[in-house]
Amino acid sequence: MAWSYTGDPAAVARDAVRFLVGQTSTGDDVLLADEELAYCIAQTNSNYAAAALAAETLAARYRQTAPDAETIGGLSVTWGDRAARLDALAMTLRRRVALKHATPFLGGQSETDRTGRQDATDLRQPAFRTEQFDDQSPEAST
């Protein structure tokens, strides 16, 4: 299985996913191969979603890595901490995917639009609206 990073995330989707996950060096203990990143990219609709899937995959691998903690000299690595950080990264990336595809809409800016929306039977109507009780007589409200 191959591993590569050209350093051009703007032009190469695999590099973009590696960049977003933070896996741009072979110095990591757990690596995703190019073929695995190609799978993540094929399963999703954006580099951010592919990076979230890759981060979740890496987190799962860190959770499976034994032992839970390893000490070499004065350096200690806790695999569970790395998995938790990758899970948090995946959530952040998924939020970015959701926000990227969200389109804000503010209707009713013109009188015609507002009136048209009130009369539309296929639109969900608000529970309350201004002047909704103006046409009722005082006797009907008691």
In short:
With 142 residues, this protein is mainly alpha-helical. 49% of the residues lie in helices and 6% in strands.
Key terms for this structure?
142 residues, mainly alpha, two-stranded antiparallel sheet, 2 strands, 49% helix, elongated
What would you note in describing this structure?
49% of the residues lie in helices and 6% in strands. The chain is mostly helical and 142 residues long. The protein has a domain at 13-101. A two-stranded antiparallel sheet has the order 1-2. α1 (13-21) crosses α3 (47-64), α2 (34-43) crosses α3 (47-64) and α3 packs antiparallel against α4. The relative contact order is 0.10. The model has no long low-confidence stretch (mean pLDDT 85).
Give the arrangement of secondary structure elements.
Layout (H helix, E strand, L loop, with lengths): L12 H9 L12 H10 L3 H18 L4 E4 L2 E4 H23 L9 H9 L23
Antiparallel strand pairs: 1-2
For the secondary structure, the number of strands is 2
Strand order of the largest sheet: 1-2
Task: Provide the helix percentage.
Answer: 40-55%
Q: Name the assembly state.
A: single chain
- Mean pLDDT across all residues, rounded? 85
